[in-house]
Specification:
single chain, mainly alpha, Rna Polymerase Sigma Factor, Chain: A, Arc Repressor Mutant, subunit A, 2 domains, 10 helices, 71% helix, disordered N terminus
Length: 207
């Protein structure tokens, strides 16, 4: 796409196509070179494979203008300024691209290589600690004790609903009772479990 920008550029105005003097003044040369800045940006962006607004493109164009102004006496009489300065920006952009590639390689080589042991140490242990296992065991024991204190049918309805994920309808069919009865058993069971566990926690906090 940027190549199309290059070839679709409008024809040069004034004396941009060629310099007719052997040693143009800095002011005259700078004015004519500045009119080619959009073309230079397009060429630099194409070589660097970045957008024309990228900072590297601006750096390449600025360096091109500096080299062109300082070396303007090397532009032969009648030689097109456009082709001459485009050649400069291509070289500048290629140098910038090579420098960027070398810098990335150095960064990759300088990056510390972590050993397998270091990497393993950084991975969090998903297994519960002994304290967590003890706490979970105690919680299960309290829950089992609270469930054991419920009436048989109520306990069965609570287990089927909360642990096996059955619906009220399915529990009613399995236990042979209406859905309203199932709802009542589950509601009472929840309240009884909450009260039992809260009382157990209160006794533990007092000790």
């Amino acid at each position: 796409m940027l190549g199309a920008v290059f070839f679709a550029s409008p024809p040069p105005r004034g004396n941009i196509g060629a310099m007719t003097t052997a040693a143009p003044t800095v002011e005259a040369f700078s004015r004519e070179a500045a009119e080619l800045r959009p073309l230079l940006k397009a060429v630099a962006a194409s070589v660097l494979h970045v957008a024309p607004e990228h900072p590297d493109v601006d750096d390449a164009v600025s360096e091109t203008m500096r080299r062109a102004i300082e070396g303007r006496t090397r532009l032969r009489p009648g030689e097109p300024l456009r082709a001459w300065i485009v050649g400069i920006v291509k070289h500048v952009a290629l140098d910038a691209a090579r420098s960027r590639t070398r810098a990335l390689k150095r960064q990759a080589n300088d990056a510390p290589v972590e050993s397998t042991r270091d990497l393993a140490a950084r991975i969090p242990d998903s297994k519960p600690s002994p304290f967590e296992r003890t706490a979970r065991t105690q919680e299960l024991e309290r829950l089992e004790a609270a469930l054991g204190a419920l009436p048989d049918k109520q306990r069965e309805a609570v287990v089927l609903f909360f642990l096996e994920g059955l619906s009220y309808v399915d529990i009613g069919k399995r236990l042979g009772v209406p859905m309203g009865t199932v709802a009542t058993w589950i509601l009472r069971g929840k309240k009884a479990l909450a009260a039992s566990l809260s009382a157990e926690l209160g006794r533990r906090s007092e000790t």
